[in-house]
Structure formats: structure tokens, C-alpha cells
Amino acid sequence: MAQLSIYHSATGKQSPHCIHIVGLGKAGAQLIDSFLRTGEVEDLLADPRARFTALAVDIGEADMRQLQQYADSFYARLAERGIPANRAQIKTVALTVPTPQELADSMQRFPTFLGSEYPRFGGAPDHFAPWIETGTPFPTAEKRYAAQLEQPAENEHFPRALAKAIYGRAYYDGDRALYRELAEFARSIDDTKLPSMVLMAFGIGGGTGSGMVVDLARHLTNGQLGRRVPVIGVGVLPCTGDPEYQRGASVYTTLNDIDCMLDEAKNEQIVSIWGDMYKNPFTGGFLALPQQQSWERLHRYTTIKPGVRPEVRHRQAVHVTNKFVDDSFARYVVHDYGRELFRILRPAGFTGAPHERISYGDRNWTIFDVAKLTHPGVQVLPGEPIGKWRTAISDWIGYIPQWCGLRPGFKTEYIEAHTFAARAKWNATLQKKLEDTLSEFLLPGDSGTLRTTEGEFFDELTLYTNVIITGAAKADLTAFTEARDAYDALSPSERLTTHAWLLELGVMLSEPSEQFEGLCGKPLAGATGWKLDIPYAALRGDVTRFPTAVQLTTAAMAAPVQTVVPTP
């Protein structure tokens, strides 16, 4: 491997990048699985300057057992290639479920814990209020599996508010196990002799990962890493095959929390009150991964095998969908030794030089849609004429706008599409269909740019396109509107369980303020309210500052443009 400097200005070439990953909850652990399966990570570790660091955190260990098995295989492959095992650090942390009394005792000490980080707490602030009531029944972290498929139990869902409290107890209380794990994760990155990027992966639906990420992200980025390394949020969006609780109200509150991190105008309001620890922790940007098209493609089969119960087949389809999306994303991230990920984040404004970037504000979301276009046994069988295959592929290209997770009418200035197909499958006609289909999302004329590439895939029967769409707002996500309706249908006590970010400050972010008309941020019972100058209508998604990112940046540049010197 050529020994390049980190950024070789004479040629424009870059050194390899090291990818590190934190996976939260089941979705995060499964994404780490995919990186361990690809085979490319050990290629990077052949460079003595490189390291790979992975940390999975979940409540209970059940959803991390497969990761542990993949880690054993990964280390075995390193040994076969003569690569020192200490170039990789793969760890799992299974948080135990405390008793209600144990958690209540920890929460009583939260003002002291938080006072060590934020002097404004002062040890016993009148604005702190526990957000978990004493006596609340807790779910179980135990899970049942049959043939590696989870058998759902009635009492296994951890809502966001409870997951946040369990995380806080593990981070602040007792021997501070999570604090020590994050410090060790950061030290491993500091030992890397190549530029690094950190992925922080979790499911936007559900509760465990989305409940913990709001605190873990700030503790890692703004604390342990000191904002020295790009941290890229990776939020897996639910599909219609997921359980209802993963598609429901918590999606709405999670998207609001992330939006108030990514949008500088909103984030500044939080930081102005509570300081830099609440500054946007996703310094490398945020990628939202829809799963709907892969779900639609994978759960449709020509026949159902006799003797297979529909609920078992359904869980198999969900499992395969998760795995395909994760594997496709992981392969792309490690492509060209991480350089490709760095490059695709530049158009979104996160990996360029500071002087190159004009913030997209509330349009700082990037969609990474794995559009699966073929599956044997759906419409076409292996061995049938190539013309029939291409007709089916063309049909599924046409479904991309319907299932990419964006509302009809969305427009942006930049899209990338990277297609991976067997050599004989893809042709100019399909390429034209893809370009015409994605152009629906582009601004007209020279205001919109579509960049495409083609790569050869090793499997003759698999064909997919990674569609990367910049400049989205949370309100452009179809999941946002659906989840908001589900949130509105909840009782006040049920709504509280779906919150996470700012609960330690006594604030329910997604609720309207009771003290300041038109603003968001309802205080918890017993807590002092705070004036967050964030319009409630913006949290609801009823207004975005500009219809497109281009209009936003044009307005931001209106004053500087007046200083441009004309030329003849």
C-alpha cells in the first residue's frame, strides 16, 4: 500500500481512513456485525498504522451474542493473515436492568452527577426532576430465540426515557462502567496513526438505542474526543415490517432530538443555556438509512413453504432486510479504505474545509437509501432470459421515489447513486431509467447535479443502488409525519416515555412550553421551565425556514454577495 501523507495536496490523493463504530441497541449491534463480515476491515488493518475500534452497548446481552461470534471469527482471520490482534478492539457492554428502587436511588443523585459536568447544576438544582416514577414496572432484557430468530415477548420493549435513565446510571453511578468504556474507546482512536472517522449507529425506531444515543454521543464527541474526530450519526429508519412500537411515536421525538442537534439555529439555543456539552455531537454529519425498498423486495416470495408459520416467515424477512441494508452500507463505508465515505460527506458540507461550508440549517439530513432491485424468485427466476430480468429491474428502479423515505415533491441540489451489478445485468437503458427517476428529486437545470457510478458485484443474482440524497429536513421524511400522528394519540404519561434528550434538564422538548407562547419545551412536573427560543411549529414540522437547501444558502449569502468584485 502506498504510504501517502494524510492529505496529499500535490495530487489530491488521500491516505486511507480508519473506521471506528459505536453500535447502540439491536440495530447498532447488527451494523457492527456487518463490518466484521465484509472482509475489507482486515485489509485496512494490514497497514501497521491502522486500527479498528468497535463498541456495542445494549440493555442485556441477547442481541449482541451474534456480534461476539463474528468477533471471534474476525480475530481468527487476522491471525491467519499474520495481522496483530491488537490492531482491533471489539467490545460489548451489556447493561443490567436495575430494580425500580436502585434506579430511583441513582436518579436522586443525578443533580450531583450532573454538577460535576455542568457547574450550573450546583449540586441540588430546583429544575431537576426524576423522569422515571418510583414503582414503574420494568421490561425484561431476556429474549427467546429459535434458529437464531428472536421470538418476541410481551414485556421486552424499553422506552426511550427508561433506556436513557439506565444509561445514565451506568455512566455516572457506582464504578462508572460506561464512562470507562468510552474512555478506552477514545484511547484506541488516539492510538490510530491514520485519519479516523467514527460511526454512531442506532435504530431511530424503538427505544434502547435512540434513548441512549442522545447522551452517549455528547459524552463521546464533546467529552472524550474533544470534537477532534468526525463522528457520523447513522440512524436506521423503520420499515412497515418492523413491530408497531418501532414505527410509532418514539420516531417523532427521536427525529426532533436529532434535528435540534443538526440545525445550528436550534442547537445554539440549547448551547446558550447549557453550554458546549450540548453542542451538536454529529460533527461528521448524519445519515438516515431507509429500509422500505429492501423490505418490499425481500419479503415478497413466489410461494410460502408448507409448514412455515406466517409469523416466523415474517421475522425471517425482517432479519434478512436488516442484514442486507447493513451489509450494503458497510461495504460502501469501507470502500477505498474509507475514502469514499469521506468524499460523499463533502457535498453535505461536513468533511470540507470550514471556509467551504454554508450550513444547511434544518436541512442537514442526508438519506442513504439502499435500493434493492433484484431478488431471485420475485418476478423472475435464475436462468430466465436477461430481458425479463431487466424488465423487473426497471420496475423496481421506478419504485425508488415511493420507498426511499422522502415525501413527494422533495427537491435538492445534489444526489449520488452508486450501482452494484453483475456485469451482464446492467445496461445503458437501465442507467437512463435510474437517472430519469432520480431527476424527480433534483432542482431543474444547472441547479441540480446527479453523480452516478457503476461497480461490479460478485453475486450474479444481486443488484442494488446506494442512493445518497443531501439537503433533507426531518419534515421531508415520511416517517416523521406518520410518527407525529402516533405521538398525538398518546396520553401525557405515555408521551413522556418517548422523550430522551434534555430530560435531565427537566425539559420535554417535543411538547409546547407552558410559560412561553409559541415555543417548545414543557417542564417536567416539579422542574423549573426554561425559555428555549425554538418555535413549537418548527418542532412539529409545520414550518421549515426554506423549501430547499439552495434557497437557504442563497439567503445566507445575500450580504456577502454584495461584496463580490465584478469582472469585465
Automatic annotation (TrEMBL):
GO molecular function: GTP binding
InterPro entries according to UniProt: Tubulin/FtsZ_GTPase_sf (IPR036525), Tubulin_CS (IPR017975)
Domain of life: Bacteria
GO biological process terms on file: microtubule-based process
Family annotation (PROSITE patterns): TUBULIN (PS00227)
CC per GO annotation: microtubule
Alphabetical list of SUPFAM superfamilies matching this protein: Tubulin nucleotide-binding domain-like
Name used for this protein in its record: Tubulin-like protein
Organism: Rhodococcus opacus
